[in-house]
Amino acid sequence: MNDEQGAPAIEAVDLSKFYGNFAAIRDVSFRVAPGQVTAFLGPNGAGKSTTLKILTGYLTPTEGTARIAGLDVASQRIAAAARLGYLPENGPLYPEMTPLELLRFFGEARGLENGRLSSRIDAVVEQCSLDAVIEKAIHKLSKGYRQRVGMAQVLLHEPEILIMDEPTSGLDPNQIRGVRRLIRELAKEKTVLISTHILQEVEATADHVVMINEGRIVFDGTPTEMANGEDLADAFYRLTGGASAEAAEAQAAPLPEEPEEPPAANDTPSQPEASA
User: Fold this and answer.
1) Fewest 10 Å CB contacts: which of 5, 114, 198, 244?
2) Are 273 and 265 in contact (CB under 8 A)?
């Protein structure tokens, strides 16, 4: 567990979540100090999203305690939510709305008064570079712009703590660069926890790493400590049960090609979209 002095901004204490006999996570404990950018790292299915949903109050843990800014998320959820901005992997956007309509809707739902709401909308539109699409229906925007709209609504009430689940998932390289730049800017004033399985996210944004594998924490420290003289990819492989990526490649026998799976319904190409 991270031993930074002072009260943690985010704290997981012995969190477990069971579905029948299946443990999605078990005994998950870590702290994120104020002002840190922490990468919550792990392979797909490791328990990252489950942990984040518990930390943000969307799920109730079977066991353990989640705290945001010292507030127990289970018993003080509204107070904790006022200090927190949460961007899920698939953010809550209403496609028929414009970004302006959506920001006004979320601002009113959060109780922001008209004067403050207007000034905050102006601020997040500039911060997330939404001027060009502010009056365009969200369903007509590229994924990069939709991600920016999601980020804008997360920032609207000026939270001191941000939790983001796979914020660059599905974006192209230019869009990824823009999101990383925004995260680095936000980190100057806020505590940020980013869930990812992409090692470049760790190298580009994080000064602290918490790694989960098969529902349990397997590392808590700095990126340098995680690498321990190795490439981060090799360290990732070692911490998830392998020896090294290089050794795995040397030992792997060639496999016959498998036919490509047909695209899922939501992967069907759509009409050209605005680019981010």
Assistant:
1) 5
2) no
Task: Give the pair of three-digit tokens for residue 251.
Answer: 């030992």
Backbone angles phi, psi at 197, to 5 degrees: -120, 10
- The CATH number assigned to the domain holding 233 equals 3.40.50.300
Question: Which SS3 state, helix, strand or coil, does residue 162 take?
Answer: strand
Kindly state whether residue 134 falls inside one of the protein's structural domains: no
Q: Average pLDDT per run of 10 along the chain, which is 276 residues long?
A: 67 97 96 94 91 94 97 94 90 91 94 92 93 96 90 94 88 84 87 89 89 96 92 91 48 42 46 47
Domain count, the chain: 1
| Residue 98 within any structural domain of the chain | no
The CA R_g of the chain, rounded to the nearest whole Å, is 20
**Distance (Å, rounded) from C-alpha 214 to C-alpha 240?**
8
Running DSSP on this structure, what letter comes out for residue 257? Answer: -
Global pTM reads 0.81
Residue identified by tokens 């020896």 is: 243
Domain with 199 in it: 1-83+161-166+191-243
Q: Is residue 136 part of a domain?
A: no
Asked if the structure places residue 121 within a domain, the reply is no
**What's the one-letter identity of residue 105?**
F
